[in-house]
Design a protein that fits this description.
By secondary structure, the protein is mainly beta. The protein folds into two domains: about 90 residues, Immunoglobulin-like (Sandwich), CATH 2.60.40; about 160 residues, Jelly Rolls (Sandwich). Helix content is about 0%, strand content about 55%. It contains one helix and 19 strands. The strands form four sheets. Strands 9, 11, 12, 13, 14, 15, 17, 18 and 19 form a nine-stranded antiparallel β-sheet that branches. The termini are far apart.
Length: about 270
């Protein structure tokens, strides 16, 4: 049995009625490009990211001039405009996001009495297979739900999948923290954490481990997302799993879905006793 996770696929160059192509670059108010900024169309549950140099180009399907497009990045005010307004701004858009100053979180020293805990799944075995295979997964992600009674600090994250000829060999990720606000998972990340998975960095057990340079504090019920930042270029991720060994949480532009199978993504924390 195969469990297929359907990932957003964006087709470039369509010109039929109801489809609008948007191209441009996202910068800050100093003229510096903003890599991996998020672009969403809330009414259509679709979107994309800028690339590593702040550029974007994608097609909106079945939209009207009244649909809104939102541009956002951690540490900046959002910019939202209707499709009609964006079309009137020219063929190549220059989107400027203004820095949003906020007070830095108080430095919290990890208490001496903590215990290690792992959320998610570290096993790479199973009878079922989860397949993530889209040309454009950027902006989508896998979530690991972490329920801690008190405070906890993420010290590392890990992932692993079956190695096949067409497997993803390199992928940058961004860690995001989500909390429920009025019943909706909301991104509450204050400081972005980005890292790059590479096949060459796999350990002897076949898993990739990223150790955070500074622990990331979470508390209560938190969804930690592994967000894909770049296209897969025809490659695929194959994950072995079993039913009722956890939940595979998939995020796609504001919409979360969950299946009762464990994915091989894990979050390793120190929990306050």
């Amino acid at each position: 049995m195969r469990i297929l996770v359907a990932v957003l696929s964006i087709v470039i160059g369509l010109t039929a009625s109801g489809k609008v192509t948007l191209k441009g670059v996202v910068k800050d108010d100093k003229g510096e490009v903003i890599p991996y900024a998020t672009i969403t169309v809330p009414s259509r549950s679709t979107g994309t990211l800028t690339d590593s140099v702040g550029a974007f180009g994608f097609v909106l399907n079945n939209v009207t001039d009244n649909d809104s497009v939102s541009f956002s990045s951690i540490g900046y005010d959002d910019f939202t405009a209707t499709v009609g307004r964006l079309r009137s701004m020219g063929d190549k858009l220059d989107i400027v996001l203004h820095e949003h100053p906020y007070e830095l979180d108080e430095v919290v020293v990890i208490p001496p009495k903590v215990k290690k805990k792992t959320f998610g799944r570290t096993s790479m075995n199973g009878k079922f297979e989860i397949q993530i295979g889209s040309e454009h997964p950027e902006g989508c992600g896998v979530g690991v739900r972490c329920k801690v009674g008190k405070r906890a600090w993420i010290t590392s994250v890990s992932m692993g999948w079956i190695q096949r000829d067409n497997c993803v060999e390199r992928m940058p990720f961004r860690l995001n923290a989500y909390k429920k606000r009025n019943g909706v998972w909301t991104n509450v990340t204050r400081q972005p954490v980005m890292f790059t998975y590479t096949k060459e960095a796999l350990g002897g057990d076949g898993r990739f481990v990223y150790r955070l340079p500074e622990p990331m504090m979470i508390n209560g019920d938190t969804m930690v997302e592994f967000e894909f930042l770049e296209p897969m270029h025809g490659h695929t991720i194959y994950i072995k799993s079993n039913v009722l060994t956890g939940h595979f949480n998939w995020h796609e532009y504001g919409k979360w879905e969950s299946m009762p199978v464990g994915g091989s993504f894990a979050v390793h924390v120190l929990v306050e006793k």
